[in-house]
């Protein structure tokens, strides 16, 4: 009996090139969180390089767990893992609330360890509760992730520091615009591999263009070692603070929700539907990878949706291709020179690329919301209020200024608060007290309108 395409082992050259393609598709996404958090902490270029390499290394380990699997750990699907965007806003909030910035990373690492271990224990139960996270909830959360991170891209576009003389200068904004233009042109006029790595190529082009303007700094590469290892607890032993733990536990729920949705989608694409057991195993890999990451100075790990799109486009379904990509990530993490290359990229160039990168995350959320039955008034209310609450920290940063600092760590994360509100409102509006309504007229809270039509044989009723 022939192996399923998911279990197929391709020839070595094809395995290597297609594995690199997955790395190219996710690279910018992996390095963005350590750049954001590292800048907030005030790390030196050398420390930022170390943190970036550590995140590449732990992303590779987490990808191994997902694709190859051990015991009941790993979905054993072509599932790429990396640092989740969902944790960025809460982690920067933790940094802002920490008096001594040297303690910020240890506090974050301690919270990630606890959230990862609790998530690991909860994985089999969460896989049963997935029906409480329909598209109306997951779509809202993913949209909020992208929207919450767009201000970061706009800040990068202006320069490295608000205190710098050239912050917001025409040169910086021009470099951001040129980088964005290069990415858009590559996405519009190229195909295949080149199109897939348009963001990476745009960053390279923007960096080269920035050299004559004196914006590009090559010192991180010159100072980096060829070989290195992410020393355990390089930034200090983990510290455990309740408010930070609560904040990142909420993020873990968000991350597990995203990963579950991604596993369901990927299972359909590769023709191996993800059942409850697969989802539980995949969530164990996510959460265990997250719990182990702080040991090597990494952050919380989750699925990368852009790689699911790559699988769908190329129709290369082998999980060993993705495992090879994980191997490349580990090697990059062990080679500081490779990791330091991202530190060379000027912030305005990152800003131009970030507009596409973070905007794509928001667009993915909107695509999910399109399946959420928004022709139903109840679902519109759920999305409207959840998004409104989620953007409070962006549109009114001082809104919660009268609250205690411990509460603000959670409240200042629009992703966390938006997720909680979306889950609760979905239950209140779509789940509780449904008995007196006609099933044909009301979309089931745990199904999309399309799902309802499929199960009843009727089209969803118009609002």
UniProtKB/TrEMBL annotation:
Membrane topology: Multi-pass membrane protein
Region: Disordered, residue numbers: 439-463
Transmembrane segments: 24-44, 50-71, 78-98, 104-126, 133-157, 169-186, 198-215, 235-254, 320-343, 349-369, 381-403, 409-429
InterPro entries documented for this protein: NCS2, UacT-like, Xan_ur_permease
Subcellular location: Cell membrane
Any Pfam family: Xan_ur_permease
Highest taxon of the lineage: Bacteria
Keywords: Cell membrane, Membrane, Transmembrane, Transmembrane helix, Transport
Family membership: Belongs to the nucleobase:cation symporter-2 (NCS2) (TC 2.A.40) family.
Listed PANTHER family: PURINE PERMEASE C1399.01C-RELATED, URIC ACID TRANSPORTER UACT
Name of protein: Nucleobase:cation symporter-2 family protein
Organism: Streptomyces tunisiensis
């Amino acid at each position: 009996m022939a192996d399923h395409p998911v279990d197929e082992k391709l020839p070595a050259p094809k395995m290597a090139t297609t594995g690199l393609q997955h790395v190219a598709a996710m690279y910018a996404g992996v390095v963005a969180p350590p750049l954001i958090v590292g800048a907030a902490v005030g790390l030196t270029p050398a420390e930022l390089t170390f943190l970036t390499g550590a995140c590449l290394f732990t992303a590779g380990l987490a990808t191994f767990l997902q694709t190859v699997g051990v015991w009941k750990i790993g979905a054993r699907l072509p599932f790429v893992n990396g640092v989740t965007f969902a944790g960025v806003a809460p982690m920067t909030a933790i940094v802002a609330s920490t008096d001594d910035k040297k303690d910020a990373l240890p506090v974050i690492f301690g919270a990630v360890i606890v959230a990862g271990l609790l998530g690991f224990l909860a994985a089999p139960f969460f896989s049963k509760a997935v029906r409480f996270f329909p598209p109306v909830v997951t779509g809202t959360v993913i949209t909020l992730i992208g929207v919450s991170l767009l201000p970061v891209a706009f800040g990068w576009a202006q320069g490295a520091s608000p205190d710098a003389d050239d912050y917001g200068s025409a040169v910086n904004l021009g470099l951001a615009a040129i980088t964005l233009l290069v990415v858009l042109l590559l996405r519009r006029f190229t195909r295949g591999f080149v199109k897939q790595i348009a963001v990476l190529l745009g960053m390279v082009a923007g960096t080269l263009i920035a050299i004559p303007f004196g914006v590009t700094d090559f010192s991180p590469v010159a100072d980096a070692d060829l070989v290195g290892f992410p020393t355990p607890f390089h930034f200090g032993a983990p510290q455990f603070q309740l408010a930070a733990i609560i904040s990142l536990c909420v993020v873990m729920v968000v991350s597990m929700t995203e990963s579950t949705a991604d596993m369901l989608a990927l299972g359909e694409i590769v023709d191996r539907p993800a059942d409850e057991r697969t989802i539980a195993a995949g969530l164990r890999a996510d959460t265990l990878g997250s719990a182990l990451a702080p040991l090597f100075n990494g952050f919380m790990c989750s699925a990368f949706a852009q790689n699911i799109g790559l699988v769908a486009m190329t129709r290369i379904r082998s999980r060993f291709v993705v495992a090879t990509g994980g191997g490349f990530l580990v090697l990059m993490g062990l080679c500081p020179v490779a990791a330091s290359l991202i530190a060379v990229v000027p912030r305005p160039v990152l800003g131009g690329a970030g507009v596409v990168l973070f905007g794509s995350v928001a667009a993915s959320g909107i695509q999910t919301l399109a399946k959420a039955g928004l022709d139903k008034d109840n679902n519109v209310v759920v999305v409207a209020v959840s998004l409104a609450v989620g953007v409070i920290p962006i549109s009114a940063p001082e809104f919660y200024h009268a609250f205690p600092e411990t509460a603000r760590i959670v409240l200042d994360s629009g992703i966390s608060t938006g997720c909680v509100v979306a889950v609760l409102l979905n239950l209140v509006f779509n789940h509780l007290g449904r008995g007196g309504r006609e099933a044909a007229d009301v979309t089931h809270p745990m199904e999309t309108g399309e799902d309802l039509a499929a199960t009843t044989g009727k089209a969803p009723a118009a609002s």
